[in-house]
Amino acid sequence: MLMLKLLKRAALSLGALIILIVIGVFAFEITSPQFGSSPTTDQLNEMKTSPNYKNGKFVNLIETKMDLGFRSFFTTMSEFITAKNTKPSKPLPSAFDYRNQTTTDSSVYVTWFGHSAILLEMEGKRLLLDPMLGSHASPVSFFGKRFGYQELIQVEKLVDIDIIVISHDHYDHLDYSSIKALDVKTKHYLVPLGVGAHLKGWGVDSTKITELDWGQSVEN
After folding, report:
1. Which of 27, 35, 215, 65 is nearest to 140 (CA)?
2. Contact 188, 160 (CB under 8 A)
3. Are the CB atoms for 186 and 161 separated by under 8 Å?
C-alpha cells in the first residue's frame, strides 16, 4: 500500500513537472521575438492563392520525401552525435573588407561573412544575402553557435544597403538580431511569400517588403 502511494506521488510529481515544462516552453516561445510572427488572416489568404500552396502548406515543385523512417532516423542521429572534426580547433582567420563605396556599372565586389551571408556590390547597388551575422543560429544562445573568427563581424560598418534578400526563414538564414541592427540602414527586402510576417513582427515597415512566390520576379 505504501509503495502504491509513493508511486502515485511520483507520477503526480512527474506529471506536474511535465506540465510546468510545457507551460515554460510555450511562454518562452510567445514572448521571444526571435521566433518571428505567424501570418495574419489576410496574409494567409494571399498565400492560399499560390499554386504551390496545397493542403495547408507549401509543397516543393519536385516531389521530395522528408520521412526518413524509424531506422533511417536513428542512423542519422547516431552519425550526427558521433561525427568528428565538425568544428575548427581555433578561431578562423578573417579579413572583412567593407568597401562601402558606390560601385560603378563595371565593378563587382563580393564579401563573404561565413555560411549564407554575402554582400554583393554591383551595378551601383549593394545587396545583402541571408545576413545571419549573429553569434548563434538558433532561438537560444547556448545552441547553434557560429565558429569563432579572429576578427568579429562588425555589423555597424555595413551601411547604405539597397536590398536584403532572404532565401528562407531558418534561423541560420533569417536572424532576428541581424535584421534589427540592419533595418535602419536597409532600403528594401525581398523575401519568399509568407516570410514577410516575421519582418513586420520585428518592426520592419511593410512598404519596404516585397514577397515573391516561386517563379515570380521584380525589377528595382
Report:
1. 35
2. no
3. yes
The whole-angstrom separation of Cα 65 and Cα 79 is: 20
Neighbours of 113 (CB within 10 A): 22
Region 12-26: mean pLDDT is 79
Mean pLDDT, rounded, of the chain:
84
Digit-coded pLDDT (tens) for 48-92:
888 888 888 888 888 777 776 777 778 888 888 888 888 888 888
Q: How far is CA 151 from the centre of its chain?
A: 23
Interatomic CA distance for residues 204 and 155, integer angstroms: 18
In whole angstroms, what is the distance from residue 41 CA to residue 54 CA?
17
Over residues 127-132, the mean pLDDT reads: 95
Strand intervals (E) in 130-178: 161-165
Q: How far apart are CA 119 and CA 181, in angstroms?
A: 16
Helices (H), the chain: 2-31, 41-48, 70-82, 176-182, 196-201
From residue 11, how far is each of 8, 14, 16 by CA, in Å?
Answer: 5, 5, 9
**In CATH, 70-75+82-212 is 3.10.20.740:** no
**CA dist., res. 72 & res. 165, Å (int):** 34
CA nearest neighbour of 171 among 209, 117, 122, 90: 117
- The dihedral through the CA atoms of 215, 137, 23, 30 has a sign that is negative
